[in-house]
């Protein structure tokens, strides 16, 4: 039995640093034995099917292959369709009423607790808001991520070495659900 996954790569092709062409990422994934390989945008999303492994082992395998091929480390999170769909469906904000630039999801490599964000003065950042989900964080930023003061504070709070996170806007969240659908 095969499962369709999305690989989320953190911090590639941003500002001319850590360049990883999507065609080469597709070739790399195919070389690892995966089928149905597709990429979405240039910011590090790939979709593939695998008949072996789990999310953690597939992420580690891809991260290792990227470092070997390109000479730099990339954090990789792999999630299956059911998880991606559940995250989209569990959004605590009225996604259908918002612009995609206003809503973001940070996917984490492991569960995070509210304790990680206990020092964040959430009322001071209103109307921006965040909520924790299942290995994810939802961020409502009415002026967009680039202008979000709350996003800056959250990013400083969340980057512990044992947990990696990578953020996607709502359009990408929905597109990954679509691309991984059976």
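^ Assign residues to that structure.
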């Amino acid at each position: 039995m095969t499962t369709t996954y999305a690989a989320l790569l953190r911090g590639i092709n941003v500002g001319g640093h850590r360049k990883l062409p999507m065609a080469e990422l597709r070739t790399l994934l195919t070389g690892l034995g995966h089928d149905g390989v597709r990429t979405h945008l240039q910011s590090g999303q790939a979709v593939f099917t695998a008949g072996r492994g789990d999310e953690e082992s597939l992420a580690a395998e891809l991260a290792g292959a990227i470092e070997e091929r390109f000479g730099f480390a990339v954090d990789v999170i792999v999630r299956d369709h059911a998880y991606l769909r559940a995250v989209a469906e569990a959004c605590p904000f009225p996604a259908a009423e918002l612009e995609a630039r206003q809503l973001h999801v940070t996917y984490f490599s492991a569960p995070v607790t509210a304790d990680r964000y206990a020092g964040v003065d959430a009322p001071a950042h209103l109307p921006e808001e965040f909520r924790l989900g299942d290995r994810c964080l939802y961020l409502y930023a009415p002026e967009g991520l680039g202008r979000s003061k709350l996003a800056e504070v959250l990013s400083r709070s969340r980057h512990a070495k044992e947990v990696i996170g990578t953020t996607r806007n709502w359009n990408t969240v929905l597109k990954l659900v679509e691309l991984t659908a059976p």
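The radius of gyration is 16 Å.
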